[in-house]
Amino acid sequence: MKKIIFTEKAPKAIGPYSQAIETNGTLYISGQVPINPETGKMPEGIKEQTEQVMKNIGAILEAAGYNYDQVVKSTCLLSDMDNFQAMNEVYGNYYKENPPARAAYGVVKLPLGALIEIETIAVK
Question: How far from each other are the two terminal CA atoms of the chain, in whole angstroms?
Answer without folding.
Answer: 16
